[in-house]
Predict the structure.
Amino acid sequence: MRSLLPRMLECFACLLCALVFAALPVGTSSGQPSAGGAKVRGMAHEGSLLEVTLKTDRDSYKLGDEISVQVLLINMSKSPLYIYAPLDWGESASLSLWLKDVVSGKDVPQEFIADAPSSPPGSRDAFVKLLPDHVYGVVLRSKLAQLNVQKSGMYELVAEYHSPIPARMSFGLPIWSREKGAIPSNRVSITVGE
């Protein structure tokens, strides 16, 4: 009987957290991310509990170079958040990367769109606990040609985090779910030379 009461209290606390997180207003975006409605510190929607920061290893590259792109998720809330642990690339996964030609203002079409469909979580262990002001991230290394950068110039990169996991698969954890929408990162400019 002693062990039943703590478990019931834990379930009640998880349910209460889930209800609080579900009630918070969070903006969404679809398709190409825009900076509208986002704050510029790392780029999170107004009032968002999660911030997405994009960094590159350098500011300038040559056409044949490899680029290293780092995407960091930062818990801006006062409580722990749970993130689905696999940070894979693609619309069916967690992250997308978009490029724009700064001179023409046009998006760089992607020749190959990575899409790593996420398998449903089997347990609570599929999530990472992100404490307040803690960071969780991933690095993408790619040749510029694989990102369809075919000519020299200035390019702007932006990443987007979108959880592939619906709230109903949270195992009672306060997860960042699919229903909370996509969050664009800050925009990073790079120069590509011959």
Notes: The chain has one domain: 4-193. The domain at 4-193 is CATH 2.60.40.2970 (Immunoglobulin-like). The first strand starts at residue 38 and ends at 39. The longest helix spans residues 4-23.
